[in-house]
Amino acid sequence: MNVIPTDATLGAVITDVDLANVKDDLWQAIHTNFLEYGVLIFPGQHLSEDSQGKFALRFGNTEKLHPKQAGPTLQFSNQKPNGETVKPDDQGFRLMKGNEGWHTDSTYMPLAAKAGMLAALVVPPENGETEFADMRAAWDKLDADTQEQLQGMSAYHSLYYSQSTAGYVHTTDHVYGFHDKGAPLRPIVKKHPETGRKSIYTGRHAYGIPGMSPLASETLLSDLLDNACQPPRTYKHSWCVGDIVVWDNRCVMHRARPYDTNQPRILRASRISGEPESELAPTFADHRASDFHPSSINESSLGG
Fold first, then answer.
1. What is the pTM of this model?
2. CATH, range 2-302
3. Alpha-carbon torsion 77, 182, 217, 38, what sign?
């Protein structure tokens, strides 16, 4: 197995490995690099759906992202079954555009994701990259006073919120993300459950720091995110068909980059559930959910 670090503070390209045949000793080496680099890029693997699913399960239990999902994988596609690409009034298009903001996966669910995995099946002729940001290095870069200020702070997380800031309003359909389980309250500073390293844990889903006005909270979270996601803490992956990329959702943010949405782009995803001991968060009523009842909340549960 050949490991070549990227020029960023995160990420390594791994070659001379067959992910369709991962034995225990190879898995241990992959997992060690996963914890060290945060993002692993495996070019030209061309895994079958079954092989990708088996590799994903090495990291832990996989999440079911859609009612029709039958196994550990699900296609993220802008192409409909009839071959047409999704249009701006489709929910899939709105979610796709929303994902162009920096985020960590599933923080708007009670149990956040541990890791994410994408395999490239169809890619547009240009653009459509996925970019990653090292939140460990971002934390290390902060001055001591800012680190002390952030310790003990938390923020609510909601997919309704993040999509609304992107200009899209969604109703509760009880599909993944648009639920009535409430908005999780998560620490802004996260200690990695395996490495012990601290990182910034916010992203586009985060809002409403308790004890702060909505404007002050939004300003702090926005400035923190903008300053964190800068070189050399970012790596942008240009997809080739057959690539597999896996990242540590507990310390890495990511975002999709724009492309011509008239061109098909199909990635096969696996999302790995976090362990409840470190990724489960208390939830509070989210007033954006259609099943929201005003009498069930107080001012603090609105996040400010």
1. 0.94
2. 3.60.130.10
3. negative
